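STRUCTURE:
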């Protein structure tokens, strides 16, 4: 699996990026995602994620993670299928500022919070959502199971 990290904050330690890379690969294997899949993970500050949230979700506030799935099909859109074409899942954008705030709020490590947000964003790219109570329960149970199996517990 190809994972492209971009740290605009220049604040995420290399060890944490290595951990998140292993976590994404672990999650992808658990979910049956192709080894040829690609994803990008972008670390930004609160200002940048608020701008993205305002521009793409019409919510003018900070948030912790936003996912931009490239595999979602739109009505009337043609499917492009081919073995030579890599499966580009999309982009995950994480606010490092918000992750730090939430790590303190939830009384766990920054690594655990970044791991949670990474898995959460990745599951969104795979089509999971939490728009209904039932979907939210399913997604959050899956996240916790993945983090626990990986060894990144609270």
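SEQUENCE:
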């Amino acid at each position: 699996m190809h994972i492209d990290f971009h740290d605009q904050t220049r604040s995420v330690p290399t060890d944490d990026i290595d951990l998140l890379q292993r976590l994404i690969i672990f999650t992808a294997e658990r979910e049956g995602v192709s080894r040829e899949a690609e994803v990008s993970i972008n670390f930004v500050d609160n200002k940048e994620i608020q701008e993205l949230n305002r521009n793409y979700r019409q919510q003018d506030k900070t948030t912790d993670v936003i996912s931009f799935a490239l595999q979602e099909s739109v009505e009337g859109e043609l499917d492009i299928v081919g073995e030579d074409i890599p499966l580009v899942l999309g982009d995950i954008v994480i606010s490092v500022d918000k992750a730090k705030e939430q790590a303190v709020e939830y009384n766990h490590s920054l690594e655990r919070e970044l791991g949670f947000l990474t898995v959460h964003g990745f599951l969104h790219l795979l089509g999971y959502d939490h728009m209904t109570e039932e979907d939210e329960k399913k997604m959050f149970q899956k996240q916790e199971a993945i983090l626990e199996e990986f060894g990144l517990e609270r």
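REMARK: The mean pLDDT is 90.
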